[in-house]
Amino acid sequence: xxxxxxxxxxxxxxxxxxxxxxxxxxxxxxxxxxxxxxxxxxxxxxxxxxxxxxxxxxxxxxxxxxxxxxxxxxxxxxxxxxxxxxxxxxxxxxxxxxxxxxxxxxxxxxxxxxxxxxxxxxxxxxxxxxxxxxxxxxxxxxxxxxxxxxxxxxxxxxxxxxxxxxxxxxxxxxxxxxxxxxxxx
Amino acid sequence: xxxxxxxxxxxxxxxxxxxxxxxxxxxxxxxxxxxxxxxxxxxxxxxxxxxxxxxxxxxxxxxxxxxxxxxxxxxxxxxxxxxxxxxxxxxxxxxxxxxxx
Lengths: 185, 101
What we know:
heterodimer, A: mainly alpha, Four Helix Bundle (Hemerythrin (Met), subunit A), 68% helix, B: mainly alpha, Helix Hairpins, 3 helices, elongated
């Protein structure tokens, strides 16, 4: 777990994630910010793989880098005439937000660095075993939260369609068709 | 690669996301900040799972349901933003102040 290659992978992936995240929140062009989400999500997927959570590596690539990113890009395209790279993208709270984020970071970092976490050297089960265990848990003891999550997802999908649907004028009645001349025998 | 290292990365990602949520004028960019914060939470869960309880399944269930909720949140949030855009012609959050007293 703590070989040199693992260390290099961890620091490299963390650097990719954090630099991309900074680009997401600071780029003036929102389209650039949306595309900076891609290395951020892929770097996080790499971190999950380094943490031996192979199933979540796949889920992260599929759901975040695949689906949610496309959703963002579509929303940007539908509102593209207000996404003008020359308009300022920061509101007037920036002066307060920088110290606030720094205080948040310092307090959480200080707390988690001071605490003596009891870690274990156990290795998790192999990847296929993990996914199988997770599936069994989802239909066994965690069936109710699982079904609730699927219900929420269904409600969100239907709600998103209803909210985003344009209300059209009812289409005018098509003109009556001329009767089809009967063919002679 | 230690638990503390993962937690520090996660705290940094959360702080960056919170900063984005506060300062961004564009509502879509604000939701991107929320996604960063949700990802930081997932990284935290998986780091604790790996280093303190690698044989328990609960953290993975948490992360899976968290990802589901994040996807639902992004879909509904972006649909609401599209509606706001049609109604007001802008998605800059400081110009949408009808409810301001």
